[in-house]
Amino acid sequence: MPKATTLHLGQVLSFDAAPTEAGPDAVRISSAMLVDVGRIVAVGDAAQLRAAHPEAEVEDHGKRLIVPGFVDAHAHYPQTAMIASWGKRLIDWLNLYTFPEERRFADPAYARDVAGRYLDLLLSHGTTSVCSYCTIHPASVDALFEAAEARGMRVFAGKTCMDRPETTPDFLRDTAQSAYDDSRALLERWHGKGRAAYVITPRFSPTSTEAQLEALGALWAENPDCLMQTHLSEQTDEITWVKSLYPSARDYLDTYEAHGLLGTRGLYGHAIHLEPRERDRLREVGAGLVHCPTSNTFIGSGLFDMDGLLREGQRIGLATDTGGGSSFSMLRTMAAAYEIAQLRGRALHPAELLWLATQGSARALRCDDRIGNLAPGMEADFTVLDMASTPAIAQRAAEAETLWEALFPTIMMGDDRAIAGTWVAGKPMRG
Ligand code: GUN
Ligand code: ZN
Which CATH number fits domain 70-364: 3.20.20.140, 3.60.20.10, 3.40.50.300, 3.60.140.10? Predict the structure, then answer.
């Protein structure tokens, strides 16, 4: 039986503020973290904490870096088995690969199989929380929350709603009424149960009727503490399509805004090709913009304006967008975010990348008081990084003179081999 209190020794990384605003000095490195019954009790000096807590079991991670568990702010767990599907852009990719795969979730046993496999993949990549779309099938939501409950993970998810006959296949279509009823029943079953959070989930305006958007806007108004997630301005073809389907809308965001789907707890995936009015409104309401860099290059969507959006004070999270994204790894996702920001003129500091993958995403999910940082009172979700996990990374890290120089090769070149261990609510899940 493990003791209730564990003292983790290593290089413990905490944020005193957002490095995107305060710079890399907002990061503090301590030599120990005390965890008791799933929560962080103290972060500080190893000798002092050892002396003050002689009862604690000690786990020594050596020179490894202990970071908050990664928070993936936008993913589609049902796309796990069709990740890396070749050769299409968004609309064809959805029709050719995504919808047929999502159809398989009509079988609850298949949904349970993929949900468990998906969460285990996340844990092996150091991700402890995710905000995921499910499929139109309510059982696909139960499957993910049950798998998360079994692992103790804080998971955000919702039933994907899509009812527009001219844009959705008949095997993957609900109605305005059934979307409202099913979402409400799932919300009542799961929201706030343990670590589960229900997220109202219209897929995107091209696949919903106005009646469905209106119904989900009403559900959100009735449950304002829930998050709402959708997609916004991912590809230019998609924007043209939205204009044709919603001729009276001022812009893409307006298709949501007009139906009660713009709000402070709204999460807008991609948000690449934004009009000035859309940027202003998103900032005014403090909505979350979720950057999905491996997806944006893989499906050929465009280059997110990280520098401009950070400068104007937008709330930004980072995500894989599995399986439009080409990876389960938030390390790989940070590397892609770095490369895209470089193309738009900003070199994101490793502290900024790590923050976006942890506290930044938690902030977008309005959960940064619980996850995304290693500080007293926070839930003990953390990941231990080996900064010399492959010969290529090790030989570069050996030349490093600072922690950031030692870490950056792992951000750029690392994968699940860099994850020495993942802890969820204080319990080792791997490592
Ligand atoms: N837009 C609507 N649905 C999806 C999806 O499943 N993936 C991506 N990348 N974009 C979408
Ligand atoms: Zn998506």
Answer: 3.20.20.140
